[in-house]
Design brief:
- By secondary structure, this protein is mainly alpha-helical.
- About 50% of the residues lie in helices and about 5% in strands.
- The protein contains ten helices and five strands; from the N terminus they run ααααββααβββαααα.
- The strands form two sheets. A three-stranded antiparallel beta sheet has the order 3-4-5, with no helix packed on it. The protein has a two-stranded antiparallel sheet with strand order 1-2.
- The longest helix is centred in the N-terminal third of the chain and has 20 residues.
- The protein is globular and about 45 Å long.
- The two termini are about 25 Å apart.
- The relative contact order is 0.11.
């Protein structure tokens, strides 16, 4: 991965914004996990890399462009990581802009996109709500529910909650987790992705290897999920695997990092 003069990452001459977001988030999480082991020059370099990527995404207009739910949430995480690592309040403002946009991108341009509730509960923490952020196949204009990419969204939200401790992010994470529950086989820990707006194949299943369950059980007050953490962890640690595309790019090592950071005694790692 190459850092360009404009702060973007990637060897491609054009369109590096998604690669920049994914890599900046991995770099930022690594910086948080390892900052006490890194020498000052290395930590400063990694911090500069994340901040430069955030600046690129802002200038490129990514905080006001609804690519898909997982990408927009990833942009918000980049801003949050830049804020945590630099302490610069401008990134706090960018983070809030990114979150507000992904929840409710303005109509008419982004009509039908954003956070969709299939059931709006009464609990402020979202524990009784069900919903998803829309995903669509490029060029088809079919925003809707895609289970695999909703798991990607949960991956990102789990880390975003670890980084920000935001009650709003917790509510979104609960909402998405409840949405996925209807597709999850707790015996095999496989997620049915049939008929998604992006993964349309019927009968397709992927491992439910997100660390978001651990975050909710350990830090999010979801005591009902605590008995499920060990069986799920055992399942994905035996044969760690994931989907293709964005799920694979974002998930390599991500679940493990999330689980480590979500241990109650590891507050210094977040």
């Amino acid at each position: 991965m190459y850092r360009r003069a404009d702060g973007a990452f990637g060897a491609a001459a054009g369109g590096p914004d998604i690669d920049t977001m994914f890599f900046a988030n991995i770099l930022g999480v690594a910086a948080l996990l390892l900052r006490r082991q890194l020498d000052a020059a290395r930590l400063a370099s990694w911090t500069q890399g994340v901040a430069g990527a955030a600046d690129f995404l802002v200038k490129n207009g990514n905080l006001s462009w609804y690519t898909n739910g997982n990408i927009c949430l990833g942009n918000a995480l980049t801003m949050a990581l830049a804020w945590r690592l630099t302490g610069d309040p401008k990134y706090q403002g960018y983070y809030q802009q990114a979150i507000d946009f992904v929840v409710a991108p303005p109509a008419p341009k982004w009509a039908g996109r954003g956070l969709i509730y299939t059931h709006r509960g009464s609990h402020t923490d979202g524990a009784d709500s069900i919903g998803y952020f829309t995903e669509e196949t490029s060029g088809l204009g079919n925003p809707g529910y895609d289970p695999e990419y909703t798991q990607v969204q949960a991956d990102i939200l789990a880390m975003l909650y670890l980084v920000t401790a935001s009650p709003a992010v917790l509510a979104f994470l609960n909402t998405l987790t409840n949405q996925l529950e209807g597709r999850l086989d707790r015996n095999t820990w496989q997620l049915d992705t049939s008929g998604g707006t992006r993964k349309t194949t019927q009968g397709r299943r992927i491992p439910y290897d997100t660390g978001s369950l651990t975050v909710l059980a350990n830090l999010g007050g979801r005591t009902d999920l605590q008995p499920l953490v060990q069986p799920q962890t055992d399942a994905f640690m035996r044969t760690y695997a994931s989907g293709e595309g964005d799920r694979l790019r974002g998930a390599f090592g991500w679940a493990v990092a999330t689980v480590i950071m979500a241990q109650p005694g590891n507050c210094r790692l977040r």
